[in-house]
Amino acid sequence: MEAFRSSKDSLNDPKMSVPIRMRCFLISLLLMPINAYWIIQMEITWYAGHPTTISLFFNVMLFMVLVGLLNAVLRWIWKPLALNPAELVAIYAMLCMASAMAGHDMIQVLTPILTNHKYGATPENNWNELFAGKLPKHLIITADEAVKNYHEGKSTLYLPENYLPWFFPVLAWSGFLTLLVLVTMFLNVLFLKEWTRNERLTFPVVQLPLVVATRPRELCRSLPFLIGFAVAGSIAMINGLHHLYPDWPLVPVKRQSLAIFQGLGRPWNAVGWFPVSYYPCVIGLSYLMPIDLMFSCWFFFLYWKGQRILASALGLTPILPQRFVGQQAAGAYLAIAACALWIGKRHLKEVLRKVINPDLDVRDRDQPMSYRTAFFGAVLGFVGLVWFGCWAGLSLEIAVIYFLLYLALAIGIARMRATCGPPAHDLHFAGPGEMMAATVGTEHLNGTSLGAMSLFWGFNRAYRGHPTAHSLECFQLGQQTNGSQRAMFIAQVLGVGIGCLVAFWAMLHIGYGSTSGAPGQYFGREPYRRLGEWLTRPTEPNEWSYLCYVSGFAVVVLLPMLKMRFPGLPFHPIGYAVSASWSMHLVWFPILIGWICKLLVVRYTGGRGYRTLIPFFMGLILGDYVVGGGWCLASLAAEKGMYAFWY
To answer: Is the pLDDT of residue 531 over 70?
Structure first.
């Protein structure tokens, strides 16, 4: 691994620009429909393998490895045919952004929402009368036959009565989601120099893709890497064979629930779901994280469990909000964004001066675009988002606040990924709609605003595969490979825009052709159940919710000050924020294992030993991704779910 860091080739020379040719865009465009179809089959049809719920998408890494192998053959046949590292990174960027749009927290959720207002309506829930005038008819599907055929399947998308009602809503939502991500990309441009050069954030999540793109030979010649790859790959291979042949042995690395607390009664049963797992890829990803974040992830995960037990013991459960832990986490995410703004205030002042005075000597030529373009793009894009929100039914002031909160969460997620790279993050059921319902009260929000926020559940249910973080990481990869940042920006925009369209196509193609019902019907019912409760049982602002949001915000702000006073404290504010998530249930124990490994390595071998073992843990990640992802890819050929190494 020392060689990976000390090489002095052109990839580290900022004066040399590496060309990004059209071929890499064409390769990505060819892969995107396959990628979208595969993701949706895995994540929502078979529910076996969930690549977009982990920070480093295993489907994209698998495609990158396959393209890299083909590239090695081309290099051997005729070197000019081969792709350079910057082009490999551009392919990675397009597939990442397209995967995020097709992911478990984006179009997979949005598509069934557009029909379930009608299909899920019954005389008991009275949705037809309750939602009348509350939902924008131009953004949902109202044609009875199209809705029925989508949910019951045994039809085909390619009939006029099925595809015509979708035409305008798909274009409208694709345009909106592209604009939404584009605004966050403009914000990334404004923060990029501060985070990559001034603060020198480490971007742990993309360390492996960078090595795969730039130094695959050195990686494959590393004995620790080969050992790690063999260990994780062997486990995935054995478990995949067990899936096919149950008599074959099983290596139990996936989540296993501990029920010891449930039998103890109150207050211990308030701990809820308490699984342990041993995912090799998560152990590998955790080793790349800062050691205080590793400790904080599993420590604060147990802290949140203890908080639930204490609330039950004190009899506070009936009066606390149902998601009081998630509300504290949401406050923490907002605080991370606020801290990022505060830390980068000097750079942002320089950016603003450059916007006002283009002749000012503030360097932005090496950025994806000028700061003026990014700034005015973000402003105009935000106006477009607010307009769409009002078109969907939000009042003007609610639309402004809603998207400000969304962008704050996006900045917080990008910041935490750039700083520490947690293996997973989600913030389930705690987005802007939930915040406003809790703090403003549904009593004070009009029906059309509540209806619009129900549709926006499609991109706010959770934030596991959030495109903003992937966009920022891809800009960092572009810098590391000296590729054109403008070309990287274009690659990302194409990945988002075309990715939306192919994701909608995959969802509808699978839904109308299904024999067991449309994918994601449960997701489609969630926001309407909530909307029904909002409309039939309106609530006032909740003082406990205010306390939760403020306390979560305050802890993130105060923890760094506490660490300055007591430097030995191992608590990290980002660990506090991400540990409250649902996904932390899956990764807390592998992170604990990774923390123990890293602690022992650093203590007894120092920094040199730590660097020497990085390839081993990268091997754990790639072995799991290649062999385990290979089983998932084989599902396409078998047309059924195979062994899923993750989730």
So the answer is: yes
- What is the chain's mean pLDDT, rounded? 92
The reply to whether 627 falls in a domain is yes
Token reading at 470: 């992937």
Residues 6+ apart with CB under 8 A from 619: 224, 225, 226, 227, 228, 229, 230, 231, 232, 284
Residues 99, 77: Cα–Cα separation, whole Å:
32
CA distances from 151 to 361, 522, 526, 614 (A): 58, 11, 16, 48
58: nearest Cα among 233, 181, 219, 230: 233
Alpha carbons within 13 angstroms on the beta-carbon side of residue 169 total 26
Q: Which pair of tokens denotes residue 605?
A: 């071998």
Domain count of the chain?
1
The two three-digit tokens of residue 186, written as one number: 């403009």
Write out pLDDT tens, residues 444-468.
999 999 999 999 999 999 999 999 9
**CA 39 to CA 43: how far, in whole Å?**
6
HEC sequence for 60-111: HHHHHHHHHHHHHHHHHHCHHHCCCHHHHHHHHHHHHHHHHHCCCCCHHHHH
| pLDDT value for 16 | 57
Q: How far is CA 626 from CA 99, 189, 239, 252, 429, in A?
A: 17, 32, 14, 19, 32
Quick check: is 643 in a domain?
no
- Which amino acid is it at 37? Y
Beta carbons of 339 and 414 less than 8 angstroms apart = no
15 burial level (CB within 10 Å; 0-12, 13-18, 19+): exposed
Helix (H, G, I), strand (E, B) or coil at 385: helix
CB 529 within 8 A of CB 214: no
CA distance 421 to 476: 13
Predicted local confidence at residue 14, as pLDDT: 45
Inter-residue contact 104 to 41 (CB < 8 Å): no
Domain range holding 542?
Answer: 2-7+20-638
Q: Which of 552, 591, 549, 355 is nearest to 436 (CA)?
A: 549
pTM: 0.95
pLDDT attached to residue 508: 96
Angle at 506 between CA 500 and CA 508, to 5 degrees: 100
Are 499 and 96 in contact by the 8 Å Cβ rule? The answer is: no
* 10 pLDDT tier (thresholds 50, 70, 90): very low
